[in-house]
């Protein structure tokens, strides 16, 4: 579904992504793990057109999307749930969800997806008329994911969805990611909580200073001594 080939990104004189390549097959959960500054968020932002690569190709459904505008990438079926949630705090929950479907014209299907989102996130439905900024951290994260789903993406990219959440909420967020995947959406997940991410990953890549240094199934990397030592606290 998504193919990244030799992606190089620079910020001034800093070489942030150093020729990374990986695939996201349709129907899978793919995870990128690594420390702060490894290039995980930069990878997602480059895929959705917010950062322009100096070199490399990005293909989605066999079409090259390198350097095309972000709004066109969204219309092709890619949604990014950014780190820090980035909801609209002064808009209501309902208005946030409506904006998630801004590019859609299929009103009947949009209404169906709204009901699907309500099933996934009952607490979001309970707070439709609250301003986004009045929600708790966990509720804001749920709203951010729900808003992304309203574009009905083929590929959902999540950047640190568990960041700053209590352990119980982390489990809830990962349960929801699993449900979204079960409903047929391909997932590309960036996450510092390596254990939780690898538990649900079909395949995973370890990034260090802008390079892919290790890859394997989620199960393989959970057992890998290097991963245990560096990311799992063992």
Automatic annotation (TrEMBL):
<dbReference type="InterPro" id="IPR052156">
    <property type="entry name" value="BCAA_Transport_ATP-bd_LivF"/>
</dbReference>
<feature type="domain" description="ABC transporter">
    <location>
        <begin position="2"/>
        <end position="234"/>
    </location>
</feature>
<dbReference type="GO" id="GO:0016887">
    <property type="term" value="F:ATP hydrolysis activity"/>
</dbReference>
<dbReference type="InterPro" id="IPR030660">
    <property type="entry name" value="ABC_branched_ATPase_LivF/BraG"/>
</dbReference>
<keyword id="KW-0067">ATP-binding</keyword>
<protein>
    <submittedName>
        <fullName>ABC transporter ATP-binding protein</fullName>
    </submittedName>
</protein>
<keyword id="KW-0547">Nucleotide-binding</keyword>
<comment type="similarity">
    <text>Belongs to the ABC transporter superfamily.</text>
</comment>
<keyword id="KW-0813">Transport</keyword>
<keyword id="KW-0029">Amino-acid transport</keyword>
<dbReference type="GO" id="GO:0005524">
    <property type="term" value="F:ATP binding"/>
</dbReference>
<dbReference type="GO" id="GO:0015807">
    <property type="term" value="P:L-amino acid transport"/>
</dbReference>
<dbReference type="InterPro" id="IPR017871">
    <property type="entry name" value="ABC_transporter-like_CS"/>
</dbReference>
<dbReference type="InterPro" id="IPR003439">
    <property type="entry name" value="ABC_transporter-like_ATP-bd"/>
</dbReference>
<dbReference type="Pfam" id="PF00005">
    <property type="entry name" value="ABC_tran"/>
</dbReference>
<dbReference type="InterPro" id="IPR003593">
    <property type="entry name" value="AAA+_ATPase"/>
</dbReference>
<dbReference type="InterPro" id="IPR027417">
    <property type="entry name" value="P-loop_NTPase"/>
</dbReference>
<dbReference type="GO" id="GO:0015658">
    <property type="term" value="F:branched-chain amino acid transmembrane transporter activity"/>
</dbReference>
């Amino acid at each position: 579904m998504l193919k990244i080939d030799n992606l190089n990104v620079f910020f001034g004189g800093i070489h942030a992504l150093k020729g990374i390549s990986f695939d996201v097959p349709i129907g899978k959960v793919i995870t990128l793990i690594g420390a702060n500054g490894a290039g995980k968020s930069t990878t997602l932002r480059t895929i959705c057109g917010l950062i322009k690569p100096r070199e490399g190709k990005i293909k989605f459904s066999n079409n090259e999307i390198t350097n095309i505008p972000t709004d066109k990438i969204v219309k092709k079926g890619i949604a990014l749930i950014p780190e820090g949630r980035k909801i609209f705090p002064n808009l209501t929950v309902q208005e946030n969800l409506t904006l998630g479907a801004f590019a859609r014209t299929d009103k009947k299907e949009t209404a169906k997806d709204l009901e699907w989102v309500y099933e996934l996130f009952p607490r979001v439905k309970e707070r439709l008329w609250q301003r986004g900024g009045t929600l708790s951290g966990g509720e804001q994260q749920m709203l951010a994911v729900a808003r992304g789903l309203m574009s009905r993406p083929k590929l959902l990219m999540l950047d640190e969805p568990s960041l700053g959440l209590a352990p119980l909420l982390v489990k809830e967020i990962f349960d929801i990611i699993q449900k979204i995947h079960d409903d047929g959406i391909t997932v590309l997940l960036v996450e510092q909580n390596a254990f939780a991410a690898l538990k649900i990953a079909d395949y995973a890549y370890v990034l260090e200073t802008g390079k892919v240094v290790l890859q394997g199934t989620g199960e393989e990397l959970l057992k890998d001594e290097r991963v245990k030592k560096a990311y799992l606290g063992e």
